[in-house]
Amino acid sequence: MNIAIANFRNKIDDINSYLLITFAFFLPLSRAGISILSVLMILMWLFQGDFKKKYENLKDNVVIIALVLFVGFEFISLVWTTSENIGHGLDQAFKTTRLVLLPILVIATTLKKEYIPKVITAFLIGMLISEILSYGIFFELWTLRHGSPSDPTPFMHHLDYSTFLTFTSLLLLLLNRYFDTNNLKLKAFYFIYFLFVTSNLFLNGGRTGHLAFAISIFAVGFVNIKNKFIAFFSMLILVIAIFYAAYNISPVFKQRFDAGANEISKLESNSNSKYKGSFGQRLGAWIVAIDMVKDNHLLGTGGGSEMVEFKKYAQNSSSDLQVVQNITHFHNEYVHTIVEYGIVGLILYLIIWYSLFKMPMENTNFSNLRVIFITVFCTASTVEVLFHNQFPMSLFALFVGIFISLSKSQVKRKI
What we know:
Elements: H1 2-10, H2 12-26, H3 31-48, H4 51-58, H5 62-76, H6 86-110, H7 116-138, H8 158-178, H9 184-203, H10 207-224, H11 228-249, H12 251-267, H13 277-295, H14 306-315, H15 333-358, H16 364-380, H17 390-408
């Protein structure tokens, strides 16, 4: 029996690698799939034991240290949160632990390098299925419980889905440049898939993804083109062409773009309705947040108290700002973090990204992919709280886990 258990434990790395492939496939498709597979991987990892070796492998990794410090501060902040909001604060801290920290520890210590291309392929297949379903919703070929022809997002909110689409489209650009450069059929497939994904991005109403795409595509140019002047203007022309075509072809994008332009024009007026609508509510919430930060600048309101306190501040603000009091979050990860956890918490959060960017990685292809990932996620976080939502948190865990796994033992093999 002991021999059988020992043999099983030795195979857990392979088992978890296959579980991770399955996890990557279901990542864009199923909340339940994310939860079940995350729990299975964590349980396998715990059963495997050998924590001293795992600790030795990761104790010097700057990203892991930064994540542990941030999650630890989430729990510590419950000391100064209001008693009635401790439960919400605990939920958020455990959510970060369960969806981000623990999966990254599992991936970084068990994922074998030969499985990484399979993991990425599984993710792309999952995205392809979600996009086919999205197109079917748009063209009214079928209906699903989630999504509509005007907002064809089959499994998640359009803000999250547009971020997934943006990252996938730029990932495909990198793959088309690097993946098996001698296989012209595969390169053609990735290029067609890129057009398929990018078109889907502009059929959806998620302006978060549109912004992330417009900014992040410049990062693609900078990491692939030596002459930065040529890179900038090449990407600028490409962005203008794509957005111009999208505006004239996609009714959803045109409607959302015109609505956004109209909302922005109202912000310049003294209209009582200027803080209504998507952009107006964001601006109004950020203005209220300034007063909150002034009063709780160092440590924030404490985990779980931020929106309760926000409502109080909004109610005591000017009459035109009171319309934003019922929003559920700040639509900006950085603002939300500094309000909830103060300057200390924001610094810890930013250190995570800085550490990820500076983490040594000799494999140029994956290093470039890391830059694209950081750019997409950080840009989208200026208008959405991605680090609070299940789908983007799991996307973060998957790819950060892969980057850490590669950083541990520098792998020369290209994607």
